[in-house]
Amino acid sequence: MAGAVTIGWGSSVPDNVVTNDDLAKRLDTSNEWILERTGIRERHMGGVTSELAIAAAKEALASAGMEPGDIDLLVLATTTPDALVPGTSAIVQGALGTRGGAFDVNAACSGFIYSLVAAHGFVLAGSKRVLLIGAETLSSITDMNDRTLAVIVGDGAAAVVLEAVPGQGELLSWNLGADGLLRHLLCCEHGGYLFMDGKEIFRRAVRIVVDSAREAIVAAGVTSEQVDLFVPHQANVRIIDAARERLGIPEERAMVTIDRYGNTSSSSIPLALVAAITEGRLHAGDLVLLSGFGAGMTWGSALLRWGG
Ligand code: UT7
Questions:
Q1: Last residue of a domain, one of 166, 182, 202
Q2: Atom 35 in ligand 1: which residue has the minimum CA distance?
Q3: Could you tell me the residue range of the domain that residue 266 belongs to?
């Protein structure tokens, strides 16, 4: 049996920081409303998905002490690809020169979890080192005059390098789900803008996250009290708090980065994970719970024993 452990990480966000007050200058909104209803203070906006992905990947490779040629699979999660065809993973692969396959995953805000589980499956099937990237430029598909969405979205990318190890590795358990009959709640037609029924998603999100996380926790044979760090999708701090409380995870064991990044969809979980690592919030042996939900609807959770 082969598992995988995380040996490198990196992130990249556009230089352009947009504060709530910046948005309030041209939209009928306020810093107070945005902060209270979402937990967001500021977000980074701009850039191109592949360029953010490449920058995050380079940082992850450097921190792993690896060259692109050491990688034999590249998985890129995004809902905002540079083009319909080819996949953004191909553009990133071409720029970096990684070996082996490269493909995109579009599972919206659950994309990183789906990609992580897929990467572990590839490792089980023989891949040695996987470069896993979440990258988004949500601002490029957002109507900046739509105050509901303009205040929420952010852009950025984060990447990890996974390496095959003998034994189980980091992934203890996982849970993935989808309900395509709910696709109308969050969608974007070709050439159009993002549409979101925020209230309805909010109503469902807490239960979805809690159920999915519980499935993963039970499958790993642990309890939520044992979770050292909860790294949820950063859609709304109220969703994070409600899910965390229902799971019985104290506030200090949850990673919250929505205040600085906003909702970055596929990038939100890896950005929070990389922030947790660089801020010293993760230690070898820690039990880490990743949980996401989003358009599709899709959802997913992964329970990791950090460092394998
Ligand atoms: O990434 C995964 C998928 N996405 C999500 O998980 C998002 C889930 N949904 C949410 O986070 C929340 O529903 C939002 C943050 C989008 C909205 O917050 P809310 O507390 O559900 O607000 P609401 O839609 O119930 O609106 C409350 C009021 C309304 O005014 P009235 O009807 O009470 O007079 C809105 O028109 O707030 C108004 N409003 C705003 N006011 C100031 C809506 N957007 C804004 C805004 N600034 N940006």
A1: 166
A2: 148
A3: 171-305
